[in-house]
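Researcher: Next entry in the queue.
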Amino acid sequence: MDRLDNTVRPYAWGSRTAIPRLLGTEPTGEPQAEMWMGAHPGAPSRTARGTLAEVIDADPERELGKEAVAKFGPRLPFLLKILAADAPLSLQVHPDLAQAREGYADEERRGVPLDAPERNYKDANHKPELICALTEFDGLCGFRPPERAADLLAALGVDSLKPYVDLLHARPEDAALREVLTAILTADREETARTVAEAAAACARLGGDHAPYAQLAHHYPGDPGVLAAMLLNHVRLQPGEALFLGAGVPHAYLSGLGVEIMANSDNVLRCGLTPKHVDVPELLRVVRFEASDPGVLQPEAAPDGEEVYETPTDEFRLSRHVLPEGGTAHDLTRDTPQILLCTAGAVRAGEHELGPGRSVFVPAGEKAEISGAGTVFRATVVV
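Model: Structure for this entry, 383 residues:
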């Protein structure tokens, strides 16, 4: 197996202290938002044999296994991250596989450059993802029932929000959510900014269920995404709990430290809370306008002490082992590629000693035994 040397991305919303604290390193003074583990071309992990992308490209079947290559192609189909949010990420949604393929082909046909700010589809893949909290973790996930969203807005006492409240009460669920989100994102920006300012002041005064939206407005004053966010469920994960984000589900991460895993894609359609491009027609084509429970996941017990976060996607499978002091070793060998990530304690993976934030890549079929006392997350695929 290969010890991984991973890149930390300094996105503006990142915490300056959470990842350094996990790694036991000194803060750099700049945000440290995400640490990437995998073979994504944007920041592939480094090994003693070269970048992980180079290692896999040299012999895909040896590194990934024949079944994984047959199912997903000659590439690692997932990207594992440690994510540390100190400010809200953009409100966003991901396409399903058919939408991604169609959108990518259309933009390629029209000659939209891959690095153009108005480009929606960087690749032809979907991007299901899972976030597992290492600390208390706040997020937004999926639409509230329209009547609950109406009550939240009505309590603010802002006159310019009354048409949205009326629509949410009067229309069937799909139409209500679609029409209100469309109205929010297409309204005059100056009028919307005034409405957001009034709504933010009321949220700060009311507190409670309204408090998260006051914080959103603090970070993104005047942004229509603040109002769009009030249509969504607010979720607070406790350590060990997780959220699965499927296609078409609007969501945003607000604060906290977590382990994130996703299909290897960059396809994001933004709804707000961002200075980046928002393509409203394409967004409305992709969003699923249905109220849903966020579906907080608890890990499910599996043999040999493994705890699995069950999801409907095959591109990744995330699980963890919590190893007690004096416990026995666990054999994790399997015929698929794996990344093992320590998040607490001190563990041994093969010949490698791992502390928090350290990781290894295990080629398909390679002997993988872990021991020690700590927590190990295991990322692999389903074939």
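Model: The longest strand covers residues 251-263.
Researcher: Noted, moving on.
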